Amino acid sequence: MSDISKQNGLTLRYIDIGANLTDPMFRGFYHGKQSHDDDFSEVLERAAELGVKQMLVTGSNLAESKHAYEISKAHQHKLYSTVGVHPCHAMDIETSEDPDAYLVELEKMALDGKKSGIVKAFGEIGLDYARLNYAPADIQCKYFIKQLDIAEKLDLPLFLHSRDCAEDFETILFPRLALLKRGGVVHSFTGTIEEMESLVAKGLYIGINGCSLKTEENLEVVKRIPLEKILLETDAPWCEIRPSHASHKFLKNANLKISLPQAVKKEKFVMGNMVRGRCEPCAISQVATVIAAVKQIPIEEICEIAWKNSIALFHFDEVSI
Ligand SMILES: [Zn+2]
Fold first, then answer.
1. Would you say residue 269 lies in a domain?
2. pLDDT tens string 246-275
3. Does a structural domain hold residue 105?
4. Which of 177, 307, 175, 282 is nearest to 230 (CA)?
5. Cα(34) to centroid of ligand 1, in Å?
């Protein structure tokens, strides 16, 4: 195997704080149809080669949180998981046979998982007003509040999702933060400078992935995020950096060249390829490259500070480099 963890002769290390590794795309399934062989272990291997030492596998409802836990349990000290119901899955609770029992089970899963050392955050929870087709705003708010009630009993940091909803998000969350001592991260951040500053003022971390780097406005926000509050993620298989994004120009800079395996159309896939349109944790190196360029600091500095921030928030086990 080639050693691709070296960029500019540096060995860099990463923690991907948002990887949706339960997604069927990592098993070759797209829209319910198998398009190529299961390459889940290759995806993990590629990530490790590029210096991704640990990842947080996100849960989006009860079943997916269990799935995330199981995947993480099979790769202890490398993968950790979250437990929670994503705002786009709020209807899973609402339409379940017994919503209260659903929430009780969620709390139990979080507590048991925390005891086992695998569950390191409560989430994804939050609001997503860009996708109201999955769950109306009132239902999203209802279960954001109910899950924050649970969070107060857990002593876990929050893994928060917030999209086009800043006012309601802050109104619901901010008064509760005094009781949520472990704080949290607003992942996949795409909001304004003012929104970022108000989250940071409350002690929250900001998670940056390819979606957070799409426009020049996004890049302006990233420039201003205090280093001690920044976390790196991919949100794989989503949020890849595309040629149309404002961030893409920084990847072409010869001084910051990153060699990722070739990405091909899923129909042309052979083992060892990446798949076009399917982001992978190894692409976190691109996120770090763009942030370093935007903030005009060495890439090793952003990697190290994001590493320290991740450990401080999630209490992952220390691993050797
Ligand atoms: Zn999210």
1. yes
2. 999 999 865 555 678 889 999 999 999 999
3. yes
4. 307
5. 25
